[in-house]
Design goal:
Blueprint (H helix, E strand, L loop, with lengths): L1 H41 L4 H10 L3 H12 L4 H11 L2 H13 L4 H9 L3 H14 L4 H26 L6 H4 L4 H13 L3 H20 L2 H17 L9 H4 L16
């Protein structure tokens, strides 16, 4: 009984922390979505097209890149291929979340994958690590409440208001998203491997973006960071008595939370 009460208290505390962490995400997603809506309008997208892309694609950086490629006159096949490369980092996100969600039905995992974004991953993984298991309420909060809804509402506002808003750079809206993602990355650093991945990924992304193309920079950072981290030796083995206190799925557990 006491153990169950302690688990319930830990769940409530972690959810409160998740909600607090998500407040900054709501602000950054709103600003970034507003800029996206403005850019999409300049590319000739209608409000319906912007909303359809936000619901069916729902991938902020890839949507932004797609609008830029349309403005650049790229063929649609090229737009699809290039944005798919940009979103390839979600394969790594999925691999990190998979141990927590392995016991869930495949259709549910497919639905979770559709709403997987940088923000949903960072909020969800941190929440899962605190609990040592999955909590779908927490995942949906980060994916839907903190990201999906603000993104689409702000995108619609941007495309509808259009020319009534001055250049985004003058308002500083263009730096909100990078700043928020930097904060999320710092929060996910829990060891030397994560630190190496963050540093190498950031340096590679910025370097390639400045030397070549921002889209290629995203891909380079997403690939080189994890590769460099895997080259870092693991820490010393954890004594058996301390293993239970570490974050991550419990041994022999499928990460379920049926409450």
């Amino acid at each position: 009984m006491a153990e169950r009460a302690g688990a319930d208290a830990a769940l409530r505390a972690s959810r409160r922390q998740l909600v607090i962490d998500s407040l900054g995400i709501v602000g950054s997603v709103t600003g970034f979505g507003l800029v996206y809506g403005l850019t999409a309008r300049a590319a000739g997208f209608s409000p319906f097209e912007v909303m359809a892309m936000g619901v069916l694609v729902f991938a902020g950086a890839a949507q932004f890149a797609a609008v830029g490629y349309v403005l650049g006159g790229f063929p649609w096949a090229g737009v699809v291929l290039l944005t798919a490369f940009i979103n390839a980092r979600h394969l790594l996100y999925s691999a990190a979340l998979a141990p927590y969600l392995a016991g869930r039905p495949r259709p549910l995992r497919a639905l979770l994958a559709h709403f997987l974004t940088d923000e949903a991953f960072a909020l969800g993984l941190s929440h899962f690590r605190r609990l040592g298991r999955a909590d779908l309420w927490g995942y949906w909060w980060g994916a839907i409440v903190a990201t999906f809804i603000p993104w689409n509402l702000a995108s619609l506002a941007g495309v509808v208001l259009g020319g009534q808003i001055p250049e985004p750079e003058r308002l500083g809206l263009d730096v909100i998203f990078p700043a928020a993602m930097a904060g999320l990355a710092v929060g996910l650093i829990s060891g030397r491997r994560e630190l190496v991945a963050t540093i190498v990924g950031a340096v590679a992304a910025v370097g390639v973006s400045l030397a070549w193309d921002p889209a290629a920079g995203i891909i380079a950072g997403g690939l080189l960071g994890p590769v460099a981290a895997m080259a870092v030796p693991r820490g010393a083995p954890v004594p058996a008595g301390e293993a239970a206190s570490l974050p991550g799925p419990s041994a022999g557990s499928d990460g379920r939370d049926d409450r």
